[in-house]
Amino acid sequence: MANKITLETLENLKEIKQKKDIQVIDVHGNTYDVQLDTFFYESKVEKIASDYLELLIELNKMTDVDNDMVRQTFKLIYVMVLREFTDIPIPPKTTITELMGLSVSLGDSGITNEVMKSIPNKEFRKIEKKLKEVEKQSSKIMAEVVVKASI
């Protein structure tokens, strides 16, 4: 006979964290300890997709969008992955401009690439799948942004 789900069971489920410690070496040879989730919970994956759409809407409302900002937008997913699935201190509430700055810093330092190499493919595919689900909505917004940037 299977177990019954109780309030205690639900509380215990919140506490189950699957993490591993990795060492990341930046382009300058500095080593950092990073704690990485090895299992990507659906709620965090959905948060990334939702936050990404919100950032695209924010970008679409901006009047000073240029082609460089449009290119940077595609890299924001990686910063969001780092924010949700590592202990790298990326603030939860940031503007698109701030997030783009973090994206450049983490990317240029090599940290983003180092962490991404440690993420299990199966887990990253969850994010890709969720983004494909919202692709129609995000494509429409990005098309509007690209038109603004080219004007």
Describe the structure.
This protein is mainly alpha-helical. The chain has one domain. The chain has eight helices and two strands; from the N terminus they run αββααααααα. It is globular, with a radius of gyration of 18 Å. The termini are far apart.
Quick overview of this protein structure:
The protein has 151 residues and is mainly alpha-helical. The protein is built from eight helices and two strands.
Quick tags:
single chain, 151 residues, mainly alpha, two-stranded antiparallel ribbon
List the helices and strands and how they pair.
Blueprint lengths: L6 H9 L3 E7 L5 E7 L4 H20 L5 H7 L2 H10 L10 H14 L1 H8 L2 H13 L1 H16 L1
Helix pairs in contact: 2-4, 2-7, 2-8
What spatial form do the alpha-carbon principal axes imply? globular
Distance between the termini: 66 Å
Q: Strand arrangement, largest sheet?
A: 1-2
- Radius of gyration equals 18 Å
Low-confidence blocks of residues: none
| Relative helix content | 55-70%
Count of helical segments? 8
Q: What is the number of beta strands? A: 2
Q: Encode the helix/strand succession as letters.
A: HEEHHHHHHH
Whole-number count of domains: 1
